[in-house]
């Protein structure tokens, strides 16, 4: 194989694919990226960790000899990063080595044959639909902070996507770690009817979100079966991310969404976030709890720590039900408040022991449930 490519193009592509590659690998070839050059002048660069695979197509300056080879992902990325701006990078393979040249620099890297490189066999992906990249990015941002990191409950280690028939057909995304729940609802896209319920793993969600950052103006084609999902963005010469899905059953989360919480607190999310952030300064790791005292027209936030003393702050609010006190994990509450973009957020409360429903208003696509803490 012999091909020449602009350094900026190569660097951008490698920055996308190399983050899929794990730093420590027991199988040497999984540390490599596969580079394929074809005679039409296109280069394909691919990386995988056996559960997740990213393939990006890009135009080369020239392809003199078509071919394919695998080379260390992190090494090639570091080299591309350090090469001078605006340079052209020539890659040539011979005798199990790849020579990389740019300007006056020359590197000779060890390679492994392309035939040993594993690819995810996608099989048939019967469900296919499109979503605007901006919407898909919003769906991820509004839910992924609630994904569980507990490996024992592996079926919570991702975002649950499923279609449902509410007043109209919808596509829902949900994530929970048992302490909080985030759900985002969209009108069901054309082609998503009859789609299987799927759980997209945390790493695939993170990689997808990074790739979306550069493709926010277009649409993303989503194809899936009960075991695999593929996201294609950027059209011809774009990026394709394929991931295995989590093989498990997501719990029926709708049961924990409270419907009868009759005490409504309306408050500016920014003021409440800042107030919680300030009083939580003295909270210790064990007691990250912040107590909210609800009174007419205000919320009193307080934290007491045996080591660090006490803190309190009043935040103006709109509240007219009977007063009571409830405790929350400060970080979880801040995570949710950080997702609310308007100047008002609704907290629907019942009592100090019941889950609280949080949303911007009854029209918002995002909905959150937070379990209280004893304080």
Task: List strands and helices in order, with pairings.
Elements lengths: L1 E5 H11 L14 E6 L4 E7 L3 E8 L2 E4 L1 E6 H10 L5 E7 L2 E6 L2 E8 L14 E6 H11 L14 E8 L3 E8 L3 E8 L10 E4 H11 L6 E6 L3 E6 L5 E6 L18 E5 L1 H11 L9 E7 L2 E8 L3 E8 L1 E2 L4 E6 H8 L7 E5 L6 E4 L6 E5 L5
Antiparallel strand pairs: 1-5, 1-7, 2-3, 2-6, 3-4, 4-17, 6-9, 7-8, 8-9, 10-15, 11-12, 11-14, 12-13, 13-26, 15-16, 16-17, 18-22, 18-24, 19-20, 19-23, 20-21, 24-25, 25-26
Give an overview of the whole structure.
There is one protein chain. The model has no long low-confidence stretch (mean pLDDT 94). Strand 3 (42-48) and strand 4 form a beta hairpin. With 375 residues, the chain is an alpha+beta fold. The chain is elongated and about 80 Å long. Helix 1 (7-17) packs antiparallel against helix 2 (73-82) and helix 5 packs antiparallel against helix 6 (330-337). The longest helix has 11 residues, at 7-17. The strands form three sheets. A 13-stranded antiparallel sheet has the order 5-1-7-8-9-6-2-3-4-17-16-15-10. 17% of the residues lie in helices and 42% in strands. It has three domains: 2-116, DNA Polymerase III, subunit A, domain 2 (DNA Polymerase III, Chain A, domain 2); 127-255, DNA Polymerase III, Chain A, domain 2, CATH 3.10.150.10; 257-370, DNA Polymerase III, subunit A, domain 2 (DNA Polymerase III, Chain A, domain 2). It has helices at residues 7-17, 73-82, 133-143, 202-212, 269-279, 330-337; strands spanning 2-6, 32-37, 42-48, 52-59, 62-65, 67-72, 88-94, 97-102, 105-112, 127-132, 158-165, 169-176, 180-187, 198-201, 219-224, 228-233, 239-244, 263-267, 289-295, 298-305, 309-316, 318-319, 324-329, 345-349, 356-359, 366-370. The protein starts with a strand and ends in a 5-residue tail after the last strand. Residues 255-374 form the DNA polymerase III beta sliding clamp C-terminal domain. GO terms for molecular function: 3'-5' exonuclease activity; DNA binding; DNA-directed DNA polymerase activity.
